[in-house]
């Protein structure tokens, strides 16, 4: 255990002032002092692997913008909306910088507008009235169209849009006009052009009442719509052609323009229909109703869809028919076609009443006096009720369906219900 003290570097040999790990005694590297140590053999080297450089992504190079000459050559296609999206963007960017090209682009756009045909409104039947309503809401017209003339203005425009694309052959398409007379349905075969001629001659009753030219001329026969229409059809040696469209539309425009300038009170003037008369405001509603009905006839003949009038306009037409029902019922009673009145009352006094409920667009409720046109309808004296769809009621009033065919919800006095339904059908005529 006792021995000489060991130095801190015991177990190490000093060589050249540096410590060296001793090898085993007798090893080759245990050299004598003063000799350099032998170098160790080099380690074997690892085989080198080829290293591929990482791909370098270069930013995309934008194509050079089209030249002025190229963009100028695209102006015609741009005006016709025939450019691609990229070309359109390039042209429009160029127009913000190049005044000559911008002026040329405006000229080309104006020229393209002249080449386009008139837009067809029958694809969106209410487009015209919606645009007018929006415009008038922002800036009222200096000379507005009377409310009671607006349905006529709209329906003639819709029918004119339907006719716009008709070829010569379509104007000669057979159309069957229908109405109800006494106790049975009647019909008359004509053509599309013949229907427009019918509308022209009957609208002429309003034109004559306003002092305008009668489309039948100075030798127009005295009488109502049927007499005038048959005279017009018979006076044509050759079949009526599409040429009838222009005078019909021109007359319609003139009528609307005339009543618009006439001012208040003009709607109360009377229009003579031969056997009866209507105030001018009601006459315009009646003409709007017939224009829609005959447009429906034409569309059905050429197998084309046709929408009903706008709700407010349809309501006005139904309201007119409901107001005419007491007079039509009294006329049928005088002809022996309806049951006798059960109790005549003085004008303005309450009498027996039928309640007419019209459902759907343009609908509402109306109380119809049963025993006298001058009687006052009274909810307390209601003896019957009828419920009808609005379009079906219009078909009945137009003579397109008979009273027996109408799908009616009914309650109360059966005799009163029958008389009112037949009176509604009797409102129709050629």
Q: Which H/E pattern describes the elements?
A: EEHHHHHHEEHHHEEHHEEEHEH
Structural class: alpha+beta
> Unreliable segments (pLDDT under 50, ≥5 consecutive)?
1-37, 119-123
**Anisotropy-based shape:** elongated
Supply Rg: 47 Å
Report the sheet-strand fraction: 5-15%
- For the termini, the CA-CA separation is 147 Å
Mean pLDDT: 83
Number of strands: 10
Tally of helical segments:
13
| Spatial strand order of the main sheet | 8-7-9-10
Helix content: 40-55%
The biggest sheet, with number of strands, parallel, antiparallel or mixed sense and barrel status, is: 4 strands, mixed
Structural overview:
A hairpin with a 2-residue loop joins β1 (13-15) and β2. The N and C termini lie far apart (147 Å). The longest helix has 24 residues, at 311-334. The chain contains 13 helices and 10 strands. The chain is an alpha+beta fold. α7 crosses α8 (225-235), α7 packs parallel to α9 (245-262) and α11 (311-334) packs across α12 (390-397). Strands 8-7-9-10 form a 4-stranded mixed beta sheet. A two-stranded antiparallel sheet has the order 1-2. The model is unreliable at 1-37 and 119-123 (pLDDT under 50). It has helices spanning 68-73, 75-79, 85-95, 99-115, 127-138, 150-164, 192-209, 225-235, 245-262, 280-301, 311-334, 390-397, 414-425, and strands spanning 13-15, 18-20, 174-181, 184-191, 270-272, 277-279, 350-359, 364-369, 376-389, 409-412. It is elongated and about 100 Å long.
